Structure to design on (618 residues):
């Protein structure tokens, strides 16, 4: 090969680079960009909601808004925001992750949760048990999960919001079932996590582990994710509603400093407020999240089973306390979980 | 009496050995590769095409090409320079430099990604300064390019070093005595000698640059249509139960691999037949 040929070979990627750069700069029209940093199972919901909101915003202001989305385990996403992922809004799985962003970076004020109705959570969900078709292992409620030979799939509470709700729901059951002491609840969770073969980092990873890779007998899952599995893998799974579970309140917040920097404060605020509108609430119900508006909730009443739900505030004294006791380094989860 | 050549085995042994080799190759290379294409086309050609011409898929392809287009030439230049230095000169710290070049091979790609997050993240060393000047490195395109650069760093150098080591410095010295200058020696003597190694290194470097997942995943931020490279886009699709689309995008990477191999064989055949006696 002649040196010229080599130079030519080297030049080709440089030309590519130029083309790519030109191409990339082409799509800069008069648009507003909004980045929504969210958790794993909201992918489908926000994909639809983004279209709905973009229409609404266009009608209201004539402005075209293009919403970008990033999904992953809730804790991981919070970490990314702290490390500089400049989202305009955070729609994470639990308030604690947003609290952590506020405490560590000051991107948003610590009282963020009081800025929107219903603790800033426009939709709720809960934790249910998903089993294989026909329920071959006969799982009816929480105590069945600690039977020997049962494999339980849940993501890792350290990185996944859903997994923390799973853990707390199990704890709420265990506190009522045993002698009411922390010790017996601890033993219950230790036995439960002994039956967990893999800890995925996010809820969606755990879903694919259970539904696609067919690992495990029972899957501790977000209710919305459980419905989604039934839709995506028809006839393969069943939902078992436990005797008690937890009211999961994913909370949404504008990331003030990022939005100010991008000049998107107004549209970011509107993006979250519109989640409470009848149209959005209906979409929320369609995607198997429990709508906050009572009207819409009534419409979907036969979809969502009624069950006994504890709340994080009453049962655990809020997320800060729950996090410190259970999920912090050296907390209860670290003590009971030995892989 | 006929003597059996000592280098050949009896027929059954040969059949078993060949069957083992072919079976292993088939099971671990051909079947998975074939499955990618089968899965991709399961729902028909239109789904396949739609998956590849999707807005987010196109932007992922563009970003992947972009990162490779920067990483490959830079690492090619670096690789030639490093291999030249290491094989043609003896100096203090030479083995140390050699080990350093291998570092990206030795560390896990996740670490490679985290390193950038620690340096350029909002809470990293340079984070506050970058924020002040509104420069975005991680969770943006520059971070992806940096991560790609890091993991593909050793490929060209690693391919060239053994080739250049084997050739020694005789020819260069001869050229020197005939009055050639440094650049002339490199262009007329060294480069023609190493072209195969170089080409192979560049191809491998490119394949890895486009296929890298771990390091890029850490610094990407997974913003669809913006910081998802092709491998990350495949993961997103898979996580959204769009299996056919995920495999359709995967065929691109598989084709890239096949193209890389094909290109290498072709070039060797064509150029090798009339100009090279070495390879």
């Amino acid at each position: 090969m002649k040196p010229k040929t080599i130079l030519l070979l080297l030049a080709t990627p440089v030309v590519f680079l130029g083309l790519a750069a030109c191409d990339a700069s082409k799509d800069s029209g008069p648009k507003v960009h909004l980045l929504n940093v969210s958790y794993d199972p909201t992918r489908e919901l926000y994909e639809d909601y983004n279209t709905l909101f973009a229409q609404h915003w266009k009608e209201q202001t004539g402005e075209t808004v293009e919403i970008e989305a990033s999904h992953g385990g809730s804790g991981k996403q919070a970490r990314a925001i702290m490390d500089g992922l400049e989202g305009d809004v955070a729609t994470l799985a639990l308030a604690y992750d947003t609290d952590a962003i506020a405490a560590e970076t000051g991107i948003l004020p610590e009282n963020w949760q009081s800025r929107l109705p219903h603790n800033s959570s426009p939709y709720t969900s809960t934790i249910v048990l998903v089993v294989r078709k026909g329920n071959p292992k006969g799982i009816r409620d929480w105590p069945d999960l600690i039977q020997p030979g049962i494999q339980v799939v849940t993501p890792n509470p350290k990185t996944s919001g859903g997994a923390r709700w799973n853990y707390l729901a199990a704890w709420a059951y265990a506190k009522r079932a045993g002698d009411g002491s922390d010790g017996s609840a601890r033993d219950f969770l230790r036995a439960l996590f002994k039956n967990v073969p893999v800890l995925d980092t996010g809820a969606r990873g755990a879903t694919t582990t259970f539904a696609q890779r067919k690992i495990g007998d029972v899957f501790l899952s977000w209710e919305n994710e459980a419905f989604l599995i039934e839709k995506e893998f028809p006839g393969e799974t069943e939902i078992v509603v436990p005797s008690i579970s937890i009211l999961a309140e994913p909370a949404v917040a504008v990331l003030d400093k990022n939005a100010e920097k991008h000049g998107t404060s107004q549209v970011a605020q509107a993006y979250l407020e519109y989640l409470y509108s009848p149209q959005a609430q209906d979409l929320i119900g369609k995607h198997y999240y429990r709508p906050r508006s009572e009207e819409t909730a009534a419409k979907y009443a036969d979809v969502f089973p009624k069950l006994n739900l504890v709340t994080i505030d009453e049962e655990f004294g809020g997320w800060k306390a729950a996090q410190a006791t259970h999920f912090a380094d050296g907390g209860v989860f670290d003590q009971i979980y030995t892989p | 009496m006929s003597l059996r050549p000592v280098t050949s085995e009896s027929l059954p042994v040969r059949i078993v050995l060949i069957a083992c080799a072919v079976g292993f190759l088939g099971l671990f290379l051909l079947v998975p590769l074939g499955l990618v294409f089968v899965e991709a086309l399961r729902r028909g050609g239109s789904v396949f095409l739609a998956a590849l011409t999707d807005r987010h898929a196109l932007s992922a392809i563009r970003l992947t090409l972009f990162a490779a287009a920067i990483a490959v030439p830079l690492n090619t230049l670096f690789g030639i320079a490093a291999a030249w230095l290491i094989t043609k000169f003896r100096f203090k710290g030479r083995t140390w430099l050699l080990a350093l070049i291998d570092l990206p091979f030795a560390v896990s790609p996740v670490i490679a990604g985290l390193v950038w997050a620690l340096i350029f993240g909002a809470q990293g060393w340079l984070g506050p300064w970058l924020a002040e000047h509104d420069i975005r490195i991680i969770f943006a395109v520059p971070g992806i390019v940096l991560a790609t650069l890091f993991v593909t760093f050793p490929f060209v150098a690693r391919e060239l070093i053994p080739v250049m080591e084997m050739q020694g410095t005789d020819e260069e010295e001869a050229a020197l005595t005939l009055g050639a200058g440094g650049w002339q020696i490199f262009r007329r003597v060294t480069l023609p000698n190493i072209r195969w190694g170089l080409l192979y290194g560049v191809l491998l470097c490119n394949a890895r640059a486009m296929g890298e997942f771990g390091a890029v995943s850490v610094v990407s931020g997974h913003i669809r249509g913006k910081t998802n490279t092709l491998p990350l886009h495949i993961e997103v699709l898979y996580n959204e139960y769009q299996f056919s689309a995920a495999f359709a995008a995967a065929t691109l990477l598989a084709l890239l691999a096949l193209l890389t191999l094909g290109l290498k064989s072709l070039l060797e055949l064509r150029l090798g037949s009339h100009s090279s006696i070495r390879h």
Notes: Chain A has a mean pLDDT of 88. Residues 325 and 331 of chain A are 5 Å apart (CA to CA).
